[in-house]
Amino acid sequence: MLIKKMICEVDAANAEAFAKAQSQWEALSHISGFIKQAGGWRKTIDEPLTAEIISVWENREAYDHFMENEHDSIYEENDQKAVILSIEVTVYEEDKPFVHDLLHNPDIRYEPNWTVLKA
Q1: Is the pTM value of this prediction over 0.85?
Q2: H-type helices in 1-119, by residue range?
Q3: How many domains does the chain have?
Q4: What is the rounded distance in angstroms from the CA atom of residue 41 to the CA atom of residue 91?
Q5: Is residue 12 exposed (0-12), middle (13-18) or buried (19+ Cβ within 10 Å)?
Q6: Contact 50, 44 (CB under 8 A)
Q7: Residuewise pLDDT in 10s, the chain (119 residues)
Q8: Which helix (DSSP H) or strand (DSSP E) does residue 9 occupy?
Q9: Which domain holds residue 52?
């Protein structure tokens, strides 16, 4: 399985706009090779706020196809870029048991509206 981990810093004034934009990724559910995406806010009181989103894909080929053909239109349509101070993206391979732990991190306050499941 391929994991995409995104860590986004957002200032408090834009937290609601970021959350709204993040909840608009439901188009992922119909992308071939997509498995699940979930995320939320790290449990800190520091500014800027930090969002962590994990996306799970069947393999690199499916992910690369998504990035080349679908990602930018979704990202531009929800205008999320305008509210992100910084973003760090890591892509790597993992096995299924690790993915479960990754999606249940006790340091993250998960936002239900950010979860997208394969259709």
Answers
A1: yes
A2: 15-22, 60-69, 71-77, 96-102
A3: 1
A4: 20
A5: exposed
A6: yes
A7: 999 999 999 999 999 999 999 999 999 999 999 999 999 999 877 778 999 999 999 999 999 999 999 999 999 888 888 999 999 999 999 877 677 777 888 889 899 999 999 98
A8: strand 2-10
A9: 2-117
Which tokens hold the place of 16? 């609601």
> Residue 68 corresponds to which tokens in the numbers above?
């080349």
- Spatial separation of the C-alpha atoms in residues 8 and 20, rounded to whole Å: 14
- Give me Rg for the CA atoms of the chain: 14
For residue 103, what is the domain's CATH number? 3.30.70.100
Residue 3 tokens, joined: 């994991």
* Structural tokens at position 94: 């993992």
C-beta separation of 51 from 25 below 8 A: no
